[in-house]
Amino acid sequence: MPQSPPSERSPKRRRSSSPNKDGIENVIEISPTGGALLVLKELAGVKPVTLQLSQDILEATSNMFASMLQNARLPEEPKVHEVLMYADDEDDVETLYLLCNILHLRNDKLPPRLSVDALCSLAKMVRKYKCTTAVGRATMGWFDRLYSAAKAGTVVVDVWKMIEAAYLLDEPVYFARFAEKWVLEEPLATNSLAAAVKTADDSIKRLAVELHNRRQAQMIALKSDVDLLVNPCSVAFSKSARHYTDYAPGMMPDPDDDGKMSGSICHVDEQAATTFLGSLRDESIWPPLAWPTTLGALVSTIQAFRIPEYDDCDKCDFCEDVKTAFGTAVELIKKMHKERLWGLCLDCFRAGGINAGECRYEHSKPRLK
Ligand SMILES: [Zn+2]
Ligand SMILES: [Zn+2]
Q1: Cα–Cα separations (whole angstroms), residue 81 to 17, 23, 24, 56, 84
Q2: Closest-lying ligand to the alpha carbon of 358?
Q3: Is 330 within the bounds of a domain?
Q4: Cβ neighbours around 357 below 10 Å, total
Q5: Out of 82, 101, 163, 334, which residue is the most buried by the measure of CB atoms under 10 Å away?
Q6: Is 272 among the domain residues?
Q7: What's this model's pTM, rounded to 2 decimal places?
């Protein structure tokens, strides 16, 4: 059996020879035939409470519980006997009770909803007892309800705490969703993570830094996107695009029969560009100085952007066709934004960049060479 790392405080335990459950008060039969008895000082006002658990399940799901069992058994004691253990005083009893029910697949005992704090507390305990794999899917419903409530605005949810919980519970879908929510909704002027990571361990600190960097990278990517919209417009104001109607740039119109110059400069593109830039400005999409305070507000504005009507029926063969080029750019950017991974992917984060294998959260990624 693997030993618990020396850095972790080993739970209080009492060596005991085969305790008889009948002599113990307030037994909760999580596993009615189980041979592991875990004593909690108190649960829901009842003191003390003993959880009857399965030795096999504890051993199969958690190396830490396996060590506790090993340490609680007398050396000569056969495995089949009951083993009495005492919960770590530091453990939150409600969370420990919940964890034991999850490990024993007691779905009938799981609450339909968990608060953000309760889910975080569970996540930390799961990490402590190293039973992430066994707990995994049981938490999906709780994440889903909190995510839906946060999206609908019916509950104020600390998004950073949810990202941290999803990370500790190795929950890829809600990790990506809450990370996206943070990147898009956290006001650009703030750095709320600075305080959050002061007491965190190294992996959580790295997560906070990566998330912050992600938002910076997305902001730069959005500036490039806006450049893609502005470029077809700016070309209309360049000297190289300046032309007389029906004459290529640089060419002078032919004199008429009287020998007079009769051509006029073509303004079709220029007026299109002015109209489109004006609409980008009105919608606070351009210039970046006019952006809203969150990236999400900008992305929504771009999604909702409608190209203003512009009649370019007077255009000639030498026009740059700003109207078409601008329309193509708008469609391209809307499509890119729908497919973009705004937040972080858990598998890529764990891989330290881009995960070479298939990620559990589906997203597009650059091909690795
Ligand atoms: Zn023209
Ligand atoms: Zn990934």
Answers
A1: 9, 15, 16, 12, 10
A2: 2
A3: yes
A4: 7
A5: 163
A6: yes
A7: 0.86
Neighbours of ion ligand 1 (CB under 5 A): 266, 316, 318-319
User: How many structural domains comprise the chain?
Assistant: 1
Name the closest ligand to CA 360. 2
Dump pLDDT digits (tens) for 256-297: 888 787 789 999 999 999 999 999 999 999 999 999 999 999
- The ligand whose atoms approach the alpha carbon of 347 most closely is 2
* Ligand with the closest atom to the CA of 343: 2
Domain for residue 237, yes or no? yes
Q: Please check whether residue 258 lies inside any domain of the structure.
A: no
Structure tokens at 59: 């051993």
Range of the domain at 272: 221-251+264-351
Q: How far is the centre of ligand 1, averaged over its atoms, from the C-alpha of 316 (Å)?
A: 4
Q: How far is the CA of 283 from the centre of ligand 1 (A)?
A: 28
Q: What is the pLDDT of residues 176-211, one digit of tens each?
A: 999 999 999 999 887 778 776 777 788 899 999 999
Question: Distance from the CA of 351 to the center of ligand 2, in angstroms?
Answer: 9
Distance (Å) from CA 333 to ligand 2 centroid: 22
Q: How confident is the model at residue 18 (pLDDT cuts 50, 70, 90)?
A: very low
Nearest ligand by distance to the CA of 175 = 2
